Amino acid sequence: MNFDYGKLREYKGFYVMRGIAKALLPLMYKIKFTGSENIPESGGYIIACNHQNALDPAIICMGVKRPVHFMAKQELFENALVGFLCRHCNSFPVKRGEGDMSAINYSARIIENGWPLGIFPEGTRSKDFKPGRGKSGVAFIAKMTGADILPTAIYTSDEFKKGTPLTVRFGKIIKNEELGFSQEHSPRELRNASKKVMDEITALWEEGHCEK
Q: Which domains does the chain have, with CATH numbers?
């Protein structure tokens, strides 16, 4: 794997890949978006979503006008072709379960540069399609940067296969001051903030399919 965390970049390939996603994914799934009015039009913030499928980032980006920089597992970048595609879609690698400060600091710079950062707080895909328990990374980055969080849920009641209905629901922004951070470094604060984010995502997921 060869990723330069020292250089912050936004690739034009993102627009190409998003265009392909907009053309192809509606042929595969019945995708509906709701809550788009909650998406910030400017500034850096965190998009936090439940994770069910490898195509989740592409699906989210279909509903967000601005380029999103996604944190992705390091294993994807170990394949030269997949790593190239991920990099040119503005994704960057993170070593899961290791407190990867290179990825954390890169995430902070993305937000401070005024760009949206995409994170799946669970750290892995759900096997039963339901939102699981979130890890503390999303809270750590939010505390580090003062960023607000856009809770997002992708709902499906079935496996991802041709014709599957998907509802992408963008919730109301969670303001950073609502996450209960103090000046101290408290693991409990991070756990509580992470739980709040996942609770919001779960509540959106439990609304089910959009009927419109």
A: 13-205 (3.40.1130.10)
Helix (H, G, I), strand (E, B) or coil at 164: strand
Nearest to 200 by CA among 131, 105, 136: 131
Most confident listed range (1-10, 180-189, 196-205): 196-205
For 102-144, how does the pLDDT look when each residue is reduced to its tens digit (9 = 90+)?
999 999 999 999 999 999 999 888 877 788 888 889 999 999 9
**Dist. CA 173–CA 103, nearest whole Å:** 24
pLDDT value for 61: 96
The Cα-based distances of 121 to 26, 33, 45, 175, 200 in angstroms read 26, 21, 14, 17, 12
Yes or no: say if 91 and 72 are a contact pair by the CB < 8 Å rule: yes
Predicted local confidence at residue 1, as pLDDT? 60
Structure tokens at 106: 């890169």
Structure tokens at 199: 């609770």
pTM above 0.85, yes or no: yes
- Single-letter residue type at 101: M
